[in-house]
Design goal:
Keywords: Hydrolase. This is Bis(5'-nucleosyl)-tetraphosphatase (Asymmetrical). This protein is an alpha+beta fold and about 110 residues long. The protein has one domain (about 5-105): HIT family, subunit A. Helix content is about 20%, strand content about 20%. The protein is built from 2 helices and 5 strands, in the order H-E-E-E-H-E-E. The chain has helices at about 5-10, 60-75, and strands at about 20, 25-30, 35-45, 80-85, 100-105. Strand 1 and strand 2 form a beta hairpin. The structure holds guanosine-5'-monophosphate (5GP) and zinc ion. The site of zinc ion has 6 residues, from helix 1.
Length: about 110
């Protein structure tokens, strides 16, 4: 999608501090971190949110979770939180599916 900031990051059209990249996934540090370590893992293909996922995306989303877990460990996180916001009132501000990985501090529950 031409006006999507995460599509532009995925395409290398705007810069991001990347931790990982392959043919279908990219991970980069969040611009406005909400924890000492906070990065995002996204599909390169544009998917709006979880409701846009089809059966064919199941393996891709599984890879995103595995990559998030691997990168968390690689960056010294034993404990961390995965977050996917879906819809504006749930906190989604960028409408391209992304997995938040947050760690390095104690997390509260329930989330705000
Ligand atoms: P959401 O609120 O949609 O769940 O999360 C979007 C996240 O993307 C936010 O944590 C925000 O700080 C981050 N973000 C928005 N624009 C950019 C950007 O251009 N670069 C990076 N690295 N992060 C961004
Ligand atoms: Zn996009």
């Amino acid at each position: 999608m031409s006006d999507c900031i995460f599509c532009k990051i995925a395409a290398g059209e705007i810069p991001a501090d990347k931790l990982y990249e392959d043919d279908e996934v990219v991970a980069f540090w969040d611009l406005d971190p909400q924890a000492p370590k906070h990065f995002l893992v996204i599909p390169k293909s544009h998917l709006r949110d979880s409701s846009a996922l089809s059966e064919e995306d199941a393996a891709l989303i599984g890879r995103i979770i595995r990559i998030g877990a691997h990168l968390a460990k690689e960056n010294g996180l034993d404990d961390y939180r995965f977050v996917v916001n879906n819809g504006a009132s749930a906190g989604q501000t960028v409408f391209h599916f992304h997995l938040h990985v947050l760690g390095g501090r104690v997390m509260g529950w329930p989330p705000g």
